[in-house]
Write a structure and sequence with these properties.
single chain, alpha+beta, Nuclear Transport Factor 2, Chain: A, 4-stranded antiparallel β-sheet, elongated
């Protein structure tokens, strides 16, 4: 059986960008987080034509369960993702009613890949990658923080050790726009240096635990399959 088209697109683009960014060492600390407010996804999703776009797959591939999610028993529908009858399950039900090909496990896998790419791109100051993965308002916040860092002559180094968890903590449908919130728990090694190369924050030898809560959105009425980051916050 031929592989699912969206799975091929995602894997190809993810590998290309991951190989480019994986060699980057950068910092990710509380002080470095871009100063912006979360925005709703109503006007945040934009189509992208650049090759650096990452498609967070929402459509099932060849390994999708044979029983359609919509027809599965409520207790089994989101097993391992959300409790039956919970707000998260209800939100995912609403998404699947509008996009019957939505595959939540593929979505989470794509969100994990996008999370690492965005964190590393921010550390590197890679505006091109960020612009294609973030909604406009979120990008403006990241870009302002990068610009301030550059003006001070500071450099940021970040290295991922692991993403320990990626749990869906919210899901809803606003009109035709799906919003899914994911809580990431990761381990990073990070350091910030001044213009002379002196360490001003972080530790190049110490692993730091980081928890982030990010919201991704996609206009289900659009032919554009890409999800974009529309809101983010640090969590304790």
């Amino acid at each position: 059986m031929m592989p699912d088209l969206w799975t091929i697109i995602f894997l190809t683009l993810a590998v290309v960008i991951f190989l480019k960014l994986r060699s980057v060492l950068g910092q990710r600390t509380g002080r470095e987080r871009p100063p912006y407010d979360p925005y709703s996804a109503r006007d945040a999703v934009r189509s992208a034509t650049n090759d650096n776009v990452v498609t967070l797959p929402g459509r099932g591939g060849t390994d999708s369960p044979q029983k359609p999610i919509e027809t599965a028993e409520p207790a089994e529908r989101w097993k391992g993702i959300a409790d039956a009858g919970s707000p998260i399950a209800s939100g995912l039900d609403a998404v699947v009613r509008e996009d019957k090909a939505f595959d939540v496990k593929h979505f989470v896998a794509g969100a994990r890949a996008a999370y690492e790419m965005i964190v590393l791109a921010y550390a590197e100051g890679d505006r091109r990658t960020l612009k294609n993965l973030l909604a406009r308002e979120v990008y403006e916040g990241f870009e302002a923080a990068i610009r301030e860092r550059e003006n001070k002559g500071e450099t940021v180094e970040t290295r991922f050790v692991a993403i320990d968890k990626s749990d869906i903590t919210g899901a809803e449908l606003r009109g035709r726009t799906a919003q899914i919130t994911v809580r990431f728990v990761s381990q990073l090694i990070s350091v910030t240096r001044d213009s002379s190369g002196n360490v001003i924050e972080g530790n190049a030898e110490r692993v730091t635990d980081v928890t982030d809560v990010w919201t991704f959105a996609r206009d289900l009425s659009s032919r554009d399959p890409n999800w974009k980051l529309v809101a983010t916050e640090a969590a304790q």
